[in-house]
From TrEMBL:
Family: Belongs to the Nudix hydrolase family.
PROSITE patterns, per database record: NUDIX (PS51462)
Pfam families: NUDIX
Name listed for the protein in its UniProt record: NUDIX hydrolase
Entry-linked PANTHER family: ADP-RIBOSE PYROPHOSPHATASE (PTHR43736), DIHYDRONEOPTERIN TRIPHOSPHATE DIPHOSPHATASE (PTHR43736:SF1)
Domain Nudix hydrolase per the UniProt entry, residue ranges: 49-192
Protein origin, superkingdom: Bacteria
Keywords from the UniProt entry: Hydrolase
InterPro entries according to UniProt: NUDIX_hydrolase-like_dom_sf, NUDIX_hydrolase_dom
Molecular function as annotated in GO: hydrolase activity
Length: 342
């Protein structure tokens, strides 16, 4: 079961390493985690005296957070709700809930370098009994994930009228949740609402018209499994920017490969398995060794291809166009990622 205690434990451990002061408040949540029998679903409504819920903290360019009015409680809160057993992760719960309640699709959201896919805040709040539904009083352990809008301005929302009464964008100091407000204000300088590269890829060529492509594994959780792609990968907490991400990924995937002339080439968006937009910085570099000499540690193989070979290959979306622009000497103006470019 994707949302088992075993799956939740790393998220909670990572969160408490960053916020050890929250441990006393999360005693009830920690009590849910040791049972790995699979008989208990920590995010199920029936798990008592408390269970996990998920929320989406969506920030716009003006450093404001999306809030909606909940009909059932009368409160103005960030979008969120209960997990369903079909949800692959807590992050997926937050993405689904913001889409259902506000109409914001995952493609209009991206994660932030500050929090990545870890919970930004875990809030504990008491829920009153609802005898008409057979629900006793209990607690919610609300995992809140941080997102930026990919749009310059907030789009028109399509609110779920049977559950939502309205929407507003609140500046950080006006947010009602004390735990969320405190964390946002503490990180205010770093949370400007502007998408930044979360992945880095290498457009590696040999100077003679060939490009090195990486065949991905056919495994669950791999982006575009079984497709040819560029070397590279996702940002991790210790990475100091996209170039550091790329160099770390090269060291993990093909240790010993050291390109020359490494420089930013283009920013673009890719789509994660959750449907989120992922800002990617593509670097260009040069290397001309034999592909079979590389010590490949991840994926199936690496191979040199010319642009005329691309139509015969299964490629990640947009890769053929990227290579052809580079081969023709077009593009290369790295800047803000736009959907026309992506």
């Amino acid at each position: 079961m994707p949302l088992s205690p075993a799956a939740l434990r790393p998220l909670v451990d990572t969160y408490l390493a960053r916020h050890p002061e929250d441990r006393p408040a999360l005693t009830g949540l920690l009590a849910l985690l040791p049972d790995d029998s699979g008989e208990r679903f920590p995010a199920a409504r029936t798990t008592l005296p408390g269970h996990v819920t998920c929320g989406a903290v969506v920030i716009d360019r003006a450093r404001r957070v999306l809030h909606i009015g909940h009909r059932s409680s009368g409160f103005t809160l960030t979008p969120g709700g209960h997990a369903e057993e079909a949800d692959a992760s807590l992050l997926a719960v937050a993405v689904r809930e913001v889409g259902e309640e506000t109409g914001l699709p995952a493609s209009r959201l991206c994660l932030t370098p500050y929090a990545l896919d870890a919970p930004f805040d875990i809030d504990v709040h008491a829920i009153d009994a609802r005898p008409e539904k057979g629900e006793p009083a209990h607690e919610h352990y609300d995992f809140r994930f941080l997102f930026y809008l990919t749009d310059d301005a907030p789009p028109v929302l399509a609110l779920q009228e049977e559950e939502v009464t309205g929407a507003t964008w609140l500046p950080f100091p006006e947010i009602r949740s004390t735990t969320l407000r405190a964390k946002l204000l503490a990180a205010e300088r770093e949370l400007d609402g502007t998408p930044q590269p979360l992945n880095a890829s290498l457009l590696l060529h040999d100077g003679h018209g060939r490009y090195l492509l990486h065949l991905r594994d056919m495994r669950e959780g791999i982006w575009e499994p079984g497709a040819f792609a560029l070397l590279g990968g996702g940002r991790e907490p210790g990475d100091d920017g996209p170039e550091a991400t790329l160099r770390r990924e090269l060291g993990e995937e093909v240790p010993g490969l050291v390109p020359t002339g490494l420089s930013p080439y283009e920013d673009q968006y890719e789509t994660s398995p959750d449907g989120l937009s992922v800002p990617v910085r593509v670097y260009e570099g040069r290397w001309s060794g034999p592909a079979e000499s590389l010590d490949l540690r991840e994926g199936v193989l690496v191979h040199w291809f010319a642009p005329e070979d691309l139509d015969r290959l299964r490629l990640t979306p947009g890769l053929a166009g990227l290579i052809r622009r580079h081969a023709a000497g077009r593009g290369g103006a790295t800047g803000r990622c736009t959907r026309a470019r992506c």
